[in-house]
Amino acid sequence: MTKNPPNKENDTVNSNAQSTNPLAASECFVCGPDNPNGLKLSFQLEGEYCTAAFTPDKFHCGYSGITHGGIIFSALDDVMANWLFLQGEPAVTAKCNLRYKAPLPTGVPTQLKSWCLKRKGRLAMMASEIRRQDTLEVIAECDATFMLSP
């Protein structure tokens, strides 16, 4: 599914939806600071990766005590979109392939990471993963194609 992430390290770039960019998503469910019901994740560029920390709350469950898969996908989708957005290239998801590998109990801190696999015209092929911070176990992986805004 996902290729191994690149190993190149560069300076860290930090930003979030509170950008002066008119395409900023201040009400985004995942990263919007103005969404009272959102996850409020903060994404950073670290070299060739976009990263964020995420600890699912008890209200993010499907089955009792297990994080809902839709919440996990939303976080994975946004970490890929923000890899592009933080570099000045807003984009939308065109298609994705998601694989869940383990359940994620609520309250367990995780790390999200994304990277670019390939660029072709207005398309960017991206990959992402979510791992538990305590065991580094991969919870889910996602490949997606994004359409860059014209």
- Known CATH architecture: Roll
Indicate the CATH topology. Thiol Ester Dehydrase, Chain A
Largest sheet: 7 strands, antiparallel
Q: Structural class, from helix and strand content?
A: mainly beta
Task: Please describe what this structure looks like.
It is built from 1 helix and 7 strands. The protein has one helix at 69-85; strands at residues 12-14, 44-46, 49-54, 91-100, 110-120, 123-132, 138-148. It has a 7-stranded antiparallel sheet, covered by helices on one side. Strand 5 and strand 6 (123-132) form a beta hairpin. Mean pLDDT is 86; it is low at 1-20.
For this entry, give a set of tags.
Thiol Ester Dehydrase, Chain A; mainly beta; about 150 residues; 1 helix; globular
Short structural summary:
This protein is mainly beta. It has one helix at residues 69-85, and strands at 12-14, 44-46, 49-54, 91-100, 110-120, 123-132, 138-148. It has one helix and seven strands.
SSE map:
Blueprint: E1 12-14, E2 44-46, E3 49-54, H1 69-85, E4 91-100, E5 110-120, E6 123-132, E7 138-148
